[in-house]
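Appendix B, Record 12. Input sequence as logged:
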Amino acid sequence: FTLFYFSSLLLNAMVSFARTAALLLLLAPSVSAFTPPKTSTSANVAAGSSSSRSPPKAISIPVDEPTTTSAPWDRISKNKDTTTSGGRDDWVQNLDYEAFAKDVTALGKELQKSSGPDDVEHLNKILDWRNIACALGVATMWLDPNPITIAALSTWTYASWTMVAHHTCHGGYNRVDAGKYNSRGFALGTVTRRIADWCDWMQPEAWNVEHNRLHHYHLGEPLDPDLVERNLEFLREMDIPRPLKYTVAAFFMPIWKWFYYAPNTFKELQIAKWKSEGKPLPQDFQPEEAVTVPTMLMPKTKAEAAGQKVVNPADFFSKVLAPFFVSRFVLLPAPLLFVPGVGPTLFGHAIANLVLAEFLTNIHGFITIVTNHAGDDLYKFDDEVKPKSGSFYVRQIVSSANYATGTDPVDFAHGWLNYQIEHHVWPDLSMLQYQRGAPKLKALCEKHGVPYVQESVWTRLRKTVDIMVGKTSIREFPTHLEPATDKARNGVTWRSTNGAIDE
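Logged structural output:
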């Protein structure tokens, strides 16, 4: 009774504090924390160290093949118009790719060299914030469903993926002594390690292939598995009123990680394994088509049926979804069942809080993740280029969008996804280095006339949903104007699935 009484008092106090804080935020000028400062770039106007434990052997598999496309590889194609569309792409014709690549490479090396103890200290600070949210959420999940517990549990999951696992799996802390936070072993190898390091709906090995390699080194290209415009083609072409399309888009937000993202990352891992074993993909299988839980369980086309051979439903549910489902929704609240008299009730409260937190963290993730590379002011491409080339750097910048940046609280709220431009240019830097590098890269873009898109996350959400429902489309980049020497004629392959760009 005492525990219930004081917990209720604590919860009431926290709710009162939250309401007061919310009122102050509404009245304070800082309410615009999610809105970045206005940019005035000419382009916008125109448009490690060792780990504390032995890491497992690195996976070495081919994860790519050349894109089949009718686009020629010459700098100027006889089949393409050498002018730009309506003047909005004139900056491409005037860009000195070589000079831009030189400046961006030099800045990247500067940021790499500045990595040190400050990065570890900053990581520990973010871990502390994440752990506070975890402790608050778990300690109060037995209460009736309430916004404090739900927000805390949601933040725990969100921060564990977007800030901790994301940058660790990319190798952002491989240059410093950050203990287990090293891409060569973090969350890999066993279910126990996955649960201890980073447990979410996605299998870490699968996410490393889909995200670290295919998405990052084919951003906006045909081989990019995260092309919103292509993956939502069914919704864009659906013959229903547009308001209903927006409703369908909203439906995906609370469930997208387990419904769509987890099966697609697993699909890419399986495709990579089939290729590494020299096995031909099944007839009728369409690698570029998105896989969802319904298409996996109830295939309606030959392509979806063939997909079951690559993405085996039993393997998917047991190896990908089960570890997170069991650890988060069964084992975590299970001790409450042993509380005499009220155990089942408390367990039910915990399940309700955990499920609602899952919905919230999915929405939070959708708003800050899916919106990074969609909008009618960003570009898509019809071929491939070499990593670290001038064309590569340009593509990462003009196919990405930043949000508000600059302070730890603002960046934490955005999951550090507000530095998406810098992250795609240099995937293997720490969170702190992105903070330091963003103003400098933005200045380089202004110097060379390269568009640098930075807007409120809410503006990017609107533009993303407009792409999803077919109201707008992503721009087509004039790839024929890129240097021929930057083209990746033989595709791009890697020695491992670790996150460092040099691999």
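The beta strands are 379-380, 475-476.
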